[in-house]
């Protein structure tokens, strides 16, 4: 279990407040997971709850009613894309409402790769989309309970990388960090997800 920054508290203890925060700047990583967490996992603890800290949108000034797809580790890409594609491609006469102009795919931790995949599928299916990619860290809280009975419980506060990808049919600010223009047939590579994946890999490498 790879943890970049985490704090473990057992039931009855108070968690440090500074471990529940979202930072645009990378937090200082710890050299390794804490001994308490290792001992807890070895003792047969099971994760029963995971909550993410609410954070402001990294895209100020987006259109009202924008579609935000929150990608989770267990999300099915087919279900996500079926809903998102229907909203982005619908016409006024089909469902009584015009298709959306913008969509955001957002995910954190192990859902990052799936988030990038969803955005790349959308770009291939709906041509001419402008893109903004934002990377940051997000605070999460996990509750672990013992599988051996009793009331043993521990809470893990940690910081995980997250990614948000805005796709828009309308032009975006080309000077905004993370901007990508629409792909063309002459510049599109056989594996369009490579650029986004490499971008995120460099982000992780800088703070490892």
Automatic annotation (TrEMBL):
The keyword Transcription regulation does not apply. GO terms for molecular function: RNA binding. It is found in: Nucleus. Residues 68-137 form the DNA/RNA-binding protein Alba-like domain. GO terms for cellular component: nucleus; ribonuclease MRP complex. It comes from the Eukaryota. Keywords: Nucleus. InterPro entries: Alba-like_dom_sf (IPR036882), Alba-like_NAB (IPR051958), DNA/RNA-bd_Alba-like (IPR002775). Its main location: nucleus. GO terms for biological process: tRNA 5'-leader removal. The keyword Nucleus applies. Belongs to the histone-like Alba family. This is Ribonuclease P and MRP subunit p25, b. It comes from Astyanax mexicanus (Blind cave fish).
């Amino acid at each position: 279990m790879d943890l970049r920054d985490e704090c473990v508290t057992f039931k009855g203890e108070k968690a440090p407040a500074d471990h529940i925060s979202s930072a645009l700047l990378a937090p200082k990583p710890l050299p390794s997971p804490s001994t308490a967490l290792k001992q807890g996992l070895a003792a047969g603890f099971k994760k029963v709850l995971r909550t993410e800290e609410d954070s402001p949108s990294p895209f100020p000034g987006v259109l009202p009613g924008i579609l935000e797809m929150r990608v989770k580790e267990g999300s099915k890409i087919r279900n996500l894309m079926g809903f998102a594609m229907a909203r982005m491609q619908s016409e006024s006469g089909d469902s009584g409402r015009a298709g959306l102009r913008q969509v955001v795919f957002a995910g954190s931790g192990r859902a990052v790769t799936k988030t990038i995949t969803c955005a790349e599928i959308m770009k291939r299916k709906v041509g001419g989309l402008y893109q903004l990619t934002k990377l940051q860290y997000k605070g999460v809280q996990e509750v672990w309970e013992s599988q051996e009975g009793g009331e043993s419980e521990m809470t893990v506060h940690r910081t995980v990388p997250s990614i948000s990808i805005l796709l828009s049919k309308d032009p975006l600010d080309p000077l905004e960090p993370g901007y990508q223009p629409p792909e063309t047939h002459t510049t599109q590579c056989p594996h369009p997800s490579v650029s986004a994946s490499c971008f995120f890999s460099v982000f992780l490498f800088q703070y490892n």
